[in-house]
Amino acid sequence: MPAGIVSYGAYIPRYRIRAEEIARVWGEREDMARSLNVFQKSVPDLDEDAVTIAVEASRNAVKRASVDPARIGAIYAGSESHPYAVKPTATIVGEAIGVDHQLTAADFEFACKAGTAAVQACLGLVSANLIDLGLAIGTDTSQGAPGDALEYTAAAGGAAFIIGREDLAAEIEGFYSFTTDTPDFWRREGMAYPEHGGRFTGEPGYFKHVTSATLGLLAKMKTGPEDYDYAVFHQPNGKFPERVAKRLGFSRDQIEPGLVVPWIGNTYSGSSLIGLAATLDVASPGERILLASFGSGAGSDAFSIRVRDAIDEIRDRAPKVRDYFEDVVYLDYAVYAKHKGKLRL
Amino acid sequence: MSTVPRFWRHIPQRYNLVGTHCKNCDEYYFPPRTICPTCRRAARMEDHKFRGEGEVVTFTTIYNATDDFKRQTPYNLAIIELSEGPRLTGQVICSPSEIEIGMRVRPVFRILGKDGDRGIIYYGTKFVPAGGPI
């Protein structure tokens, strides 16, 4: 029996800092924004974290398709910034969206791709008829050390997907994953900021994994880039997804609707899933979407998705990704540092 | 801030504004009451999840906070009248120049506080101005 996306929701905090403001503080080149194709990034409020973002995104997902939360049999929350080292994010989300308590839950971590791993776990349980609905979340308030290259992109946001068998807004036709042990980015227990291998994160990390997963999926599905109306690739910055799309034979038009990183930055576990949500915001029934996430460490999950008629019914019932681009509040570096807890009181 | 069991008991009201409703006199209560002070023995109480939409009845802006809230100053505390009737105290997240009496608000899920660096994180409901793009 086909399975897929019954509903979806996204959430992006209201605050932004411009890349040029970060560059000004650290004496970097002014064209940093253009070289990364990230002009600004989202910043969480003082009282927001990966849990509150997950709750807002999940509430949007529940609202969009008027899903009865009691039907949800599994919640998997993917993040690399779970507020607790021990104590699940998923249980707080469950309580906040009003689930019946007969459900399984766990937190996932796989750098930027924990959210798509959560989608796969839900898909497995749903396809095997073990649960009715599953809730998969990618959420992060990611960290970049002051002055580090990551500081220009490490942002906050999340997306939640309700996976099921009936009343599908989009069918997940298949997926293909590619995973290796590649130490391109990591954060040790107890450390405030992650470390990365600089340029090493590109070719052996992002490009190798995203390319392998995407080509594997295309071969498995017997499809080519021309069979998809849209493509979403993980967005650590604005350059990588453009470059990998070109390399794989996808056009600028195919990736445009899902390319949100120039305006919100890299939302880590939320990144490719917010891109998918932004694409579902505009896709028509019958159209096909290719999604490929990337998580450092490293792996990529590629999905082939076909949009169904129900999308038109549910789309407008919850805020769309681009609604969160409006009415934003810009912060200077000092207030941004306060928001991110970089100032110790 | 408060003890763990005390916070745990309040989770339904803090996360989802779960109060009570007396089916006998149609009165709504928040925080929840186990008996209806009007109907007494005739009361028929049920749980009620408030939508969380309401109006600012009055407010104050805090500039000098306790240590737990220092980082958030200035912030607005308001008495909010929920659409169903009950009034509660809550934080309204917006600039002090933006908040005004009569302003419509909607609920959001936020961190209410943290028990130091080692204790639990208290989540719950705050409010933002209604009618924005979201």
Summarize, please.
With 345 residues, chain A is an alpha/beta fold. Chain A has 12 helices and 14 strands.
How are the SSEs ordered, and which strands pair?
The complex is a heterodimer of chains A (345) and B (134).
Chain A: E1 4-11, E2 15-18, H1 19-26, H2 32-36, E3 40-43, H3 50-64, E4 72-78, H4 89-97, E5 104-108, H5 114-127, E6 133-141, E7 156-164, E8 170-182, E9 185-186, E10 195-196, H6 202-221, E11 230-233, H7 239-248, H8 252-255, H9 261-264, H10 271-280, E12 288-292, E13 297-307, H11 310-314, E14 329-330, H12 333-339
Parallel strand pairs in A: 2-14, 4-5, 4-6, 11-12
Antiparallel strand pairs in A: 1-7, 1-8, 2-3, 6-7, 8-13, 9-10, 12-13
Chain B: H1 4-9, H2 11-16, E1 18-22, E2 27-29, E3 45-49, E4 54-62, E5 75-82, E6 87-92, E7 104-114, E8 121-129
Antiparallel strand pairs in B: 1-2, 1-3, 4-5, 4-7, 5-6, 7-8
Main features:
heterodimer, A: 345 residues, alpha/beta, Peroxisomal Thiolase, Chain A, domain 1, globular, B: mainly beta, OB fold (Dihydrolipoamide Acetyltransferase, E2P), 3-stranded antiparallel β-sheet, 2 helices
Order of helices and strands of chain A: EEHHEHEHEHEEEEEHEHHHHEEHEH
Q: Count of helices of chain B?
A: 2
CATH class of the largest domain in chain A: Alpha Beta
> Which CATH-level-2 architecture of chain B?
Beta Barrel
pLDDT below 50 for ≥5 consecutive residues: which ranges of chain A? none
CATH class term of chain B: Mainly Beta
Word description of this protein:
- The complex is a heterodimer of chains A (345) and B (134).
- With 345 residues, chain A is an alpha/beta fold.
- Chain A has helices at 19-26, 32-36, 50-64, 89-97, 114-127, 202-221, 239-248, 252-255, 261-264, 271-280, 310-314, 333-339, and strands at residues 4-11, 15-18, 40-43, 72-78, 104-108, 133-141, 156-164, 170-182, 185-186, 195-196, 230-233, 288-292, 297-307, 329-330.
- Chain A folds into two domains: 4-169 and 313-339, Thiolase/Chalcone synthase (Peroxisomal Thiolase, Chain A, domain 1, 3-Layer(aba) Sandwich); 170-312, Thiolase/Chalcone synthase (Peroxisomal Thiolase, Chain A, domain 1).
- Chain A has twelve helices and 14 strands.
- Chain A has a nine-stranded mixed β-sheet with strand order 5-4-6-7-1-8-13-12-11, with helices on both faces.
- Chain B has helices at 4-9, 11-16; strands spanning 18-22, 27-29, 45-49, 54-62, 75-82, 87-92, 104-114, 121-129.
- In chain B, 9% of the residues lie in helices and 42% in strands.
- Chain B is globular, with a radius of gyration of 16 Å.
- The chains are: A alpha/beta (345), B mainly beta (134).
- Chains A and B meet through helix 3 and helix 4 of A and helix 2, strand 7 and strand 8 of B.
